[in-house]
Amino acid sequence: MKRKSEAENTGFGSDNTPFFILGCVRSGTTMLRDFLRLHPRLECPEETHFFRWADPFASPRYDRNYIAMKIFDHHRKMDGISNLEFHEAKDKSDDRRAMSDAYGKMFLKARAHENGRWFDKTPQNIYGIFLISHLYPEAKFVHIHRHPLNVVASLVEGRVMAKHSVKGAVNYWMEAMILIQEYKKIGGHRLLELPYEVLVKDSANELKRLCQFINEDWSLLQTEKIKTHEEQNQYKKILSADEQRYVLERTEPFLSVYGYSA
Asked: Per-residue pLDDT tens for 10-67?
């Protein structure tokens, strides 16, 4: 009974505004999403990419992405949404927010959790952070970041995503950081940043900080189900010494901004 009273006094559970986890790929966004799914109010579909593409919503090039890329068919199947439902919703939507809201609503219905709160985890939506910020003026953003050496090594190895060159992998990290830094100049109060390395060491406190930011009761999160391990620094096995030096040189000044070193 005491917990219920505290929740009422703090407004926990009163906000169903979606929030957005974004940033550079291979930085722990999926892990963070899975942690938050352990909260009874929070639901997250598979990656949507609604705000990733630079092409205008409903333009031929924008629509082509959702036809040509079969991964989205797989994501919708996992979310319990048929292709017919998706394309009907997209055709009825006037902009990206309308599409995003429609998908969130369909997803919650498919999860039999219509009173839940959906959030989006698409790291590449960082390319649309300014659009999201405008279309969702009340929404918040969560940026999880990771040492670029380990991000680059993961992309070069190519176990989860297609293999990248070191240069391409570095630019994946750099472009995400550039966009985040520019966004912070105008909307920093709506952004929470989480270091991957701290999250895996002290997940309970970092998740408490996050839940407070999004106004959710962190005590409802099933933290006993969370298992992590400290960063393994696989870059030492994957990247040559010359490649490591290149990454460190190319990722400044943001390397220092986030307190990272070799």
From this structure: 568 889 999 999 999 999 999 999 999 999 999 999 999 999 999 999 999 999 998 8
Across-strand partners of 42?
117
Query: For residues 125 and 18, is the Cβ–Cβ distance under 8 A?
Result: no
Nearest to 65 by CA among 81, 49, 76: 49
Strand, coil or helix: 40: coil
- The C-alpha torsion from 174 through 129 and 141 to 224, rounded to 10°, is -60
pLDDT for the residue 14: 83
Both structure tokens of 256: 């220092």
Dump strand ranges (E) for the chain. Answer: 20-22, 42-43, 117-118, 120-121, 141-145, 191-195
Backbone angles phi, psi at 150, to 5 degrees: -75, -35
The mean pLDDT value for 171-192 works out to: 96
* Residues, the chain: 262
